[in-house]
Write a structure and sequence with these properties.
This protein has 196 residues and is an alpha/beta fold. The protein has five helices and ten strands. The strands form two sheets. It has an eight-stranded mixed beta sheet with strand order 3-2-1-10-6-7-8-9, covered by helices on one side. A two-stranded parallel ribbon has the order 4-5. Helix 4 links the parallel strand 8 and strand 9.
Length: 196
């Protein structure tokens, strides 16, 4: 029965793959990027910077970002403080965040959940809950073994001196309050974010 449910979930997901024509904005959410037309962000975890592009033209750069204490990683589990790599979209925007402004990412993606399930890091039910949310164009569950509430944010009460010298977040991408204010004026729900 377990394998049958997994087969059904995989079949349903791939029979009618999401396309850019399917994008709507129910519940303030859009699925991962299929192409990067218009505004999109490139988060370079090695250079510790964010570039904002309009199509293929850079229009803004933010230097000296901070990542999760566990560093960047293709795979992330709850509590490991790693910043997940991948292709995301901004799924929600909170202007009243503890960290000034929070641009939430649609983590975990289907790819993150599938790798974690294959590795035995999450249950079939957790994998299916992520896959079903993505198919329904909802924010993926933030409470699986993969963790959640990953995004780009300002400092808020965080120490600016620590921010300049160390990675300090729980897995998010942090910048100064002034930088997140500028960035938030250029993006919206659905803006693609590539973290590499």
């Amino acid at each position: 029965m377990k394998h049958f449910r997994l087969l059904i979930a995989l079949t349903l997901f791939w029979i009618a793959p999401l396309s850019s024509a399917d994008y709507t904005q129910p519940a303030n959410y859009m699925p991962p990027a299929m192409a990067y037309n218009g505004t999109w962000l490139l988060v370079d975890t090695q250079a510790r910077k964010i570039q904002v592009f309009e199509n293929d033209i850079p229009v803004m750069q933010i230097s000296s970002i901070a990542l999760g204490r566990g560093g960047p990683s293709e795979d992330r589990l709850r509590g490991d403080r790693r910043t997940p790599l991948g292709d995301f979209r901004i799924a929600w925007i909170n202007h009243d965040s503890k960290f000034h402004i929070f641009l939430g990412l649609d983590y975990p993606t289907y790819q993150h959940a599938r790798r974690a399930y294959n590795a035995g890091d999450i249950s079939l039910d957790e994998f299916l809950s992520v896959a079903e949310a993505i198919r329904a164009r909802r924010v993926p569950p933030q409470t699986t073994g993969l963790g959640g509430h990953i995004g780009l944010h300002g400092l808020g009460p965080a120490d600016p001196d620590i921010h300049r010298i160390a990675d300090w977040t729980q897995g998010c991408i942090a910048m100064t309050d002034e930088e997140i204010e500028k960035l938030s004026r250029l993006v919206q729900v659905g803006t693609p974010v590539v973290v590499r």
